[in-house]
Amino acid sequence: MHAPSAPILCSFSNPDELVESLAQFIIKSQKEAISKKGRFTLAVSGGSLPHQLGGLIDKPGVKWDKWQVFYADERIVPFDDEDSNHRLCQEQIWSKVPIPKENIHTLDPALIPAAMKGDDEDALEEIADAYEKDLIREFANKDSARFPIFDLVLLGVGPDGHTASLFPGHPLLSEDDRWVAFISDSPKPPARRVTLTFPVINHAARVAFVASGANKADTLHTVLDHPEQGLPASRVRPITPGQVYWFVDDAAASKVEYPKTPFKL
Ligand SMILES: O=C1O[C@H](COP(=O)(O)O)[C@@H](O)[C@H](O)[C@H]1O
């Protein structure tokens, strides 16, 4: 096992510059992946992140038909529910670009009604297993060893330091076997979710957090300046040669002492 490399923090003076630089970074990651392997594998989060992907719309050089997209986490709700990360991404980005529908890997909609209810966790296990099998089909014998190797994982960070659906103090933080896990007691509603696990996130070639706004300032300070506190976002440290980046605006970075790196492609 190689040591993880230190995060690279890039801060931008305004949200528009952040969105544009993020788009350039994603396109560069895509080009490198396609030239090596003919496809680009991406895991994407919900929350405020899909809105930040707007810089990709109408950009030349995006080979949408080569993208294979999974969700870093998803809430167990119907796809038309306002809590659905898929719905959010659909509204903010997928409906605005020519990505083939079959290249977006969602939870199995047929399994959602049962997973939304019931006292036992069998249906949650089943929906997480089905998503893991979809990942295995996409990655096995291509970009995986013990875990899949995503070309890029895009993450957000919540005020409590959670990322994907990995929450502070939750037993899922220690999951070291599964690719996809379920959670039935998320402290942030909705309670039932599935998430990629830390070993998957930390095997990615690149991981990029995106955060903007002064309401993220305290969280970023703790995550980046006090990783010893072990907040979930601090535990994202991809193994070498993987690299973690932070794309933030100056408001979100206002309390961070961790050194900033000028953005360059
Ligand atoms: O619940 C979630 O929260 C995180 C952070 O969301 P944000 O709105 O504070 O950016 C998000 O990354 C995750 O996908 C989502 O399910």
Give the number of DSSP strands: 10
How many distinct helices? Answer: 6
Global Rg: 17 Å
Roughly what fraction of the amino acids lie in strands?
Answer: 15-25%
The tally of domains stands at: 1
What is the CATH class?
Answer: Alpha Beta
**Overall 3D form:** globular
> What structural category do the secondary elements indicate?
alpha/beta
Element string (H = helix, E = strand): EHEEEHEHHEEEHEHE
Distance between the termini: 28 Å
Q: What is the mean predicted local confidence, pLDDT?
A: 96
User: How much helical structure, as a percent, in the residues?
Assistant: 25-40%
Largest sheet: 7 strands, parallel
Ligands bound to this protein structure: ligand LXAUTJHC
- Strand order, largest beta sheet: 1-10-9-6-2-3-5
CATH architecture: 3-Layer(aba) Sandwich
State the CATH topology: Rossmann fold
| Low-confidence spans | none
Protein name: 6-phosphogluconolactonase
GO molecular function, one term: 6-phosphogluconolactonase activity
EC number: 3.1.1.31
Pathway: Carbohydrate degradation; pentose phosphate pathway; D-ribulose 5-phosphate from D-glucose 6-phosphate (oxidative stage): step 2/3
Please outline the helices and strands.
Layout: E1 8-12, H1 15-37, E2 40-44, E3 67-71, E4 73-75, H2 85-92, E5 104-105, H3 112-116, H4 122-139, E6 152-155, E7 180-183, E8 193-196, H5 198-201, E9 206-211, H6 217-225, E10 243-249
Parallel strand pairs: 1-10, 2-3, 2-6, 3-5, 6-9, 9-10
Antiparallel strand pairs: 4-8, 7-8
Bound molecules: the ligand O=C1O[C@H](COP(=O)(O)O)[C@@H](O)[C@H](O)[C@H]1O.
The ligand O=C1O[C@H](COP(=O)(O)O)[C@@H](O)[C@H](O)[C@H]1O is lined by residues 45-49, 72-73, 85, 155-156, 158, 164-165, 188.
Pathway: Carbohydrate degradation; pentose phosphate pathway; D-ribulose 5-phosphate from D-glucose 6-phosphate (oxidative stage): step 2/3
Keywords: Hydrolase
Catalytic activity: 6-phospho-D-glucono-1,5-lactone + H2O = 6-phospho-D-gluconate + H(+)
